[in-house]
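Allow me, if you will, to draw on your knowledge of protein folds for a short while. I am sending you one protein, given as its amino acid sequence and as whole-number tokens for its backbone shapes. Kindly check, if you would, that the fold set down in the tokens agrees with what the sequence suggests. The record follows directly beneath this note:
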Amino acid sequence: MRDPPVTTDQSPVTTRTAAPRLTQLDLLESEAIHIFREVTAECERPVLLFSGGKDSVVMLHLAAKAFWPAAIPFPVMHVDTGHNFPEVLDFRDAAVERLGLRLIVEKVQDWVDDGRLTERADGTRNPLQTQPLLEGIAKGRFDAIYGGGRRDEEKARAKERIVSLRDSFGQWDPRNQRPELWNLYNARHRPGEHVRVFPLSNWTELDVWRYIEREQIELPSIYYAYDRQVFKRDGMWLPVSPVTEPRDGEQVVTRHVRYRTVGDMSCTGAVESDAQTVHDVVLEVAATTLTERGATQADDRISEAAMEDRKK
């Protein structure tokens, strides 16, 4: 029997190291950055809707990452109902100044003052934002509008594509939307039309808060619990303010509350909470069984299709 051959190759053995696996937040961040870059490259005049709320703050953070080290290549727009929380407006202005952005503000109050819009009997101005928004889009000739909508928020938003077509009247037809296969986004549109783009479509409220914690993103103070004078209406705690005053029989009390979403004071309710840090909020959101809009948005209770009606 012959001896086995002797190997004379003394070269070191190379071992392959496995590529690090991306976390869920890494994948969501990567998708959102890809959407920002693709749509901005395809469209001529994008704009980002920025209210100072947590979703728009996260969007702004992602946009800054997408184009770093260059500046964000588009302005931001806010439709101010005139009933916004002062803390949120202060935060909005500070964020815009810090990043050196151009802020466009369309005011519902201007439309009410000159008679183009009429105040609703219930006092809420959320449904009145549509016309000022469309006016701002037309004046700026914007063809891609980045919004912070997420599919987990509400049934109408669950129908939205990531790139959602609006016709020349600014209307949304859920039956006239494009398929989105793999990571291919079609932002083409006819003159006069535009697309709404939702980079956070596949995020949940918990994803947003976990990302805020990981990235150490600052938010308006009212997202964290503090003592505030409130009164209960339709099962929600509304703040005592010039635009939300208690009616007969509605008792004003002091409660430790925070806001899960911030918008028009006249229809945004607070939730009782002890969460004073981002991590506290993450734990609280992980345990809740009620969506943020279901818990805090009075105008969505007008009808089951309230959100979809506003889109049309």
Notes: Residues 299-303 have pLDDT under 50 and may be disordered. The first helix runs from residue 24 to 42. The chain has ten helices and ten strands. Strands lie at 46-49, 76-80, 103-107, 144-146, 163-166, 194-197, 226-233, 236-239, 253-258, 271-272.
